[in-house]
Amino acid sequence: MNTLLSYSLAVSILLLILAPVTLLVINRNSFHRFNRWLLLSTITLCLLLPIGLMCIKNFGATVAPELQITLNEVPVFDNFTNITQSEISGINVLTIIGYIYLIGIAVITIYVITAFLHVRGLIGKCRKEKHENYTLCIHNDIRIAPFSFMGQIVIAEADYQKDSKTILLHESSHITKKHWLDLMYIGVVTVILWYNPMIWLLRDKLRQIHEYEADKSVIDNGVNPLDYQKLLITTAINRKLIMLTNSFASNDKNFSKRIRMIGNADLNSKRRALALLLIPASIIAVAAVNNNLCSEMLSAISRTQLKPIEMPSANADAGAAEERSLSKSVEGTDIVAESSKDEGSSIVLPSPLVDPKPLAEHVAYSISYSELGEVSPNKKVLVDLSIDEDGKISSISTRPENQTLNVALNDAFQRVEFDAYYSEGKPIKIMITLPIVKGEK
User: Fold this and answer.
1) Contacts for 286-292: CB closer than 8 Å, 24+ residues apart
2) DSSP-derived pairing of the beta strands 127-130 and 74-76
3) Contact, 77 vs 440, CB < 8 A?
4) Backbone dihedral region of 150: left (phi > 0), alpha (psi from -120 to 50 degrees) or beta?
5) Cis omega before residue 312 (within 30°)?
6) Which is it for strands 127-130 and 135-139: parallel, antiparallel or unpaired?
7) What dihedral angle (degrees, nearest 10) is formed by the CA atoms of 268, 273, 274, 277?
8) Which residues are registered as beta bridge partners of 52?
9) What is the greatest pairwise CA distance in the chain?
10) Under 8 Å between Cβ of 435 and 381
11) Of 298, 300, 414, 424, the residue nearest 350 (C-alpha)
């Protein structure tokens, strides 16, 4: 699921750069059909570019070289007993972000499903009349403004008896122009990008453009602009807007601008050339997503597995401490008791290049003071871990050579694996150097 979060973040970065340019172009002209397709094309471009970039990377990818890195020192003291295995697992910040993202998707999805069921329930109670291009649904709730939903026009009985011709002309225009498909499309995108304010702005702007297009169709069919403005104003008073639909008149924040737009002639068509600004904006957006820092961040998020968040309990801490004390001999050089845990299970730690803390804590938890052998206090031993592409440890060695510590490290990492580390979309082998410092007794 974090792959979806990584993808949505890439789309969001693109959208944050391209959407302001698109809104600038839309606000500078009144060619509504052009504005509609420009807005939808911008969203589609943002959705497709990350996929295209990934395909290009995979097509031209070569085997990445082994990556070497040195981590911070890990102190080992004679009385170091404050770290337990339950603390090593910790709570990964990326895991928390992943859960928040999933909760947001769930909330928005439930909201959309509830709105859909509300519309279907209202339509189910209506009296229906079949027309050539739509089904007319008539109800008795005057509080609901007339609206269209897919191939249906929903209208209150009072509105139908009074001004049905103009209202039906407006709503049938929504159906003919397939505006409901736009709403479904941007609704799905909104679920994926719910945390991005730009997608909400674009959604509102798209609904506004829909109304401009339908209003223009009404005026083009000979309705007097002044009479139409009066009808919109009187119909909008104390009316409810039904989500997921194109509503005839709703007294929202864009309504006054819509009234002023009616009857206005198209502005200079040359202003549509402002859309060419999207070309350099797209180049900047692709460069932003494709730079090393952003690419590695998105790769780290996509690799993070969502696991149950378990808070350590007092009993678990006590059990872990007891297990640690049983697993060491008095001298600390030989293992005299086997772990009570299942030998077949594995401990999976984050890649040290993503989060080095769990590795450091595991070493501090697993290595006793005496297992450092003849190392003098405040002196360090370098531990070299070779981690294969699949996250498994292929070799462990020490510098200078320390046989006692080698045995302890091999035992400590016998059941440990790491999340694979990716470079340019491919897992790579990494070499970790971890300095261990012998503290004072």
Assistant:
1) 286/14, 286/49, 286/53, 288/13, 288/14, 288/17, 289/10, 289/13, 289/14, 289/49, 289/50, 289/53, 290/53
2) unpaired
3) yes
4) left
5) no
6) antiparallel
7) 180
8) none
9) 99
10) yes
11) 300
| The two structure tokens encoding residue 334 | 């030989």
CA dist list (Å): 272 to 60, 72, 167 = 37, 56, 31
Q: How many residues does the chain have?
A: 441
416 is written with which tokens?
A: 């440990």
**In 150-192, beta strands by DSSP E:** 152-156
Task: Tokens for 125, please give them.
Answer: 């109670």
Tokens of 160: 């139908």
Q: Which amino acid is at 238?
A: N
CA pair distance 237, 228, nearest whole angstrom: 15
Question: Can you give the pLDDT of all 441 residues of the chain as single tens digits?
Answer: 568 888 999 999 999 999 999 999 998 888 889 999 999 999 999 999 998 887 776 654 444 455 556 666 666 555 444 434 434 344 567 778 888 999 999 999 999 999 999 999 999 999 999 998 899 999 998 888 899 998 999 999 988 988 789 999 999 999 999 999 999 999 999 999 999 999 999 999 999 999 999 999 999 999 999 999 898 888 877 777 777 788 887 666 778 888 888 867 665 667 778 888 889 999 999 888 887 777 767 776 766 666 665 554 555 444 444 444 434 333 333 333 333 344 456 788 888 877 888 888 888 777 776 666 666 777 788 888 888 888 888 888 888 888 888 888 888 888 888 888 777 667 888 888 888 887 665
What tokens does 229 get?
Answer: 């403005």
Q: Vertex 313, ends 338 and 94: CA angle to 5°?
A: 95
User: How far from each other are the two terminal CA atoms of the chain, in whole angstroms?
Assistant: 47
CB burial of 79-108 (b: ≥16 within 10 Å; e: otherwise) equals: eeeebbbbebbbebebbeebbebeeebeeb
Give the integer Cα–Cα distance in Å for 231 and 228.
5
CB 245, CB 119: distance < 8 Å: yes
In contact, 422 and 413? CB cutoff 8 Å:
no
